[in-house]
Specification:
The protein is mainly alpha-helical. The protein is built from twelve helices and two strands.
Length: about 280
């Protein structure tokens, strides 16, 4: 039971506080308009294989791969403040993972895409415990060392072509028509790009995103304010690894060939430069 204040005014209650508290609107007219434009763009991109030549569809598929990699880098370095030059490890895991699941285990190549993303995320968990012991330039070099270890381990397995690379036969068998196969790879790339961008946007707008912003701007102050800095960074690291795994899977699906080395090999450090 509340009692009147000494000055004759009723003290604020929970109900009155709720009435005067500012309301946080997640969707404003501007954001709704932006979402509408993005939805229209996605619909337009979905029908693009019917409107453009096959070569253009291939180029757009490559663009989706770059969008995924760039979005993952923005999450990793922009929000998490982590400069990694070893994301090619997860690109390689995604590419070779599709070959293993589709060619060696007989799964559908398209169904293998989300599976290899999960595998990349799982691999990133123990890696994060090792990498997070390093800071600054040591962290960057440490992630590159991990990528090299993954590459050197992979090329010792003849089941995936060893050091010479391997072709993705299952995709050719599943979709024999080359034009349709290009379109299927395009649609897979579009779906993966939309999922990654949407996931990063939702993560940035969540409590984790706010914590990441605080960690990036002032990690010491964020830690003293109760933000679990290590957990927030680990979530970012794992999500970025899963996105890189998706990019690697799309490379295998679209090119039908996975090579460990070379300028555009899946373990090439140039993928980090593309970020």
């Amino acid at each position: 039971m509340t009692t009147p204040a000494a000055d004759g005014h009723e003290p604020p209650t929970m109900r009155t506080a709720a009435r005067i508290a500012p309301r946080i609107r997640r969707f404003t007219p501007a954001s709704i308009a932006g979402l509408s434009v993005m939805a229209a763009l996605v619909v337009l991109l979905a029908v693009m294989p019917y409107l453009v030549p096959i070569a253009t569809s291939r180029q757009l598929t490559n663009l989706f791969v770059y969008v995924i990699i760039a979005t993952a880098w923005n999450l990793l370095a922009g929000f998490g403040g982590m400069v990694s030059i070893g994301q090619q490890a997860y690109i390689g895991i995604g590419a070779y993972g599709v070959v293993v699941f589709a060619d060696n285990l007989g799964l559908d190549p398209l169904l293998s895409i989300p599976i290899v993303a999960v595998v990349a995320a799982i691999v990133a968990i123990p890696v994060s415990y090792l990498a997070f012991r390093l800071v600054g330039g040591y962290f960057a070099v440490g992630t590159w060392v991990v990528a090299e270890v993954v590459r050197l381990t992979t090329i010792h397995f003849p089941q995936v072509g060893a050091g010479s690379g391997v072709s993705l036969r299952a995709m050719t068998q599943a979709v024999p028509d080359p034009d349709l196969r290009t379109a299927v790879g395009y649609w897979a790339g579009l779906v993966c790009a939309v999922v990654v961008v949407a996931a990063v946007v939702l993560l940035a707008r969540s409590r984790i995103g706010l914590a990441l912003t605080a960690v990036r701007d002032e990690p010491t102050a964020a830690a003293t304010s109760g933000v679990n800095v290590v957990s927030a960074k680990r979530i970012v690291f794992i999500v970025a690894a899963a996105a890189a795994g998706l990019a690697g899977a799309l490379i295998a699906i679209s090119t039908l060939r996975v090579q460990p080395g070379g300028p555009l090999g899946v373990f090439s450090v140039q993928w980090t430069a593309f970020m």
